[in-house]
Design a protein that fits this description.
The chain has 120 residues and is mostly helical. It has one domain. The protein is built from 5 helices and no strands. The termini are far apart.
């Protein structure tokens, strides 16, 4: 229940033009222990973003992920975040038949980007 409450507060704050999320006051999200496992588990399928010769782009490294559309400090302007939260089923990642990211995974990516998308 507290997690759902946090997500609701986060959504309200995100939509409000007078409130700004204080990312530094949240628990630190780590690329190595939190974000990389999400990417490795959900984006590295054959034919997706799991090798250097991927048709669109690779997400094998931290640098690849940043180049794919991360604006450190601004998740709402980061292509990676807007893609994983898209309401358009033809644009959202990961594509079917793969499972969508969980709310917790999306939240971790959002906070990580908001905290500066550090390679930590």
């Amino acid at each position: 229940m507290p997690f759902i409450l946090f997500l609701n507060i986060l959504a309200v704050m995100q939509l409000s033009c007078t409130h700004k999320i204080q990312f530094d006051s949240l628990n630190q999200v780590s690329y190595i222990t939190d974000v990389a496992p999400i990417i490795n588990t959900n984006c590295m399928y054959s034919g997706c973003h799991g090798n250097a010769n991927t048709k669109k782009f690779s997400l094998l490294t931290y640098s690849n992920l940043l180049a794919a559309g991360i604006e450190p400090g601004n998740p709402n302007k980061s292509k990676v975040y807007t893609t994983i939260t898209s309401l358009n089923s033809s644009n959202v990642m990961p594509q079917k038949p793969y499972d969508s990211l969980t709310d917790k995974q999306i939240q971790l990516i959002y906070i990580w980007i908001g905290q500066g998308a550090k390679n930590n």
